[in-house]
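Trying the structure run again after the queue cleared.
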Amino acid sequence: MGVICTLIVTLWTGDLLVKETNIGLGARLRVLWRFTGYFFWLLYQIVVANLHVVYVALHPKMEELLEPQMMDFTTSLEGEIPRFLLANSITLTPGTITVRIRNGVYLVHALTRQSAEGVPGDMEKRIKWVFEGVANG
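Done. Tokens:
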């Protein structure tokens, strides 16, 4: 029953993940398949970032490791849903939080230099791949 309900909800709301509503079912399923791959990649990144934050928090020289900073970058993603997904993915990853988005320019707070160096990184490329089927760059 769970699989059936999931398929029904996916068919009803699939247009939220697809930029063009006039594309066929096959293309829509490819986007959903790529999104599933992105989801598991993001879960892995969340675990890695959690370990980094725990390491920093428990390190005897925590003050030396902490380098909070605000950074901005312009995304090449187009459309509200891909940009929304990027902002939420950054915020879900421990050590970073999306503070603001204006006209494709993201303002992100990072806890450490290592956290800041990873933004947007592969995340933006993978989201572009989910929605357009091509890697960014």
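Residues 25-58 form the longest helix (34 residues). Worth checking whether this holds up in the mutant runs.
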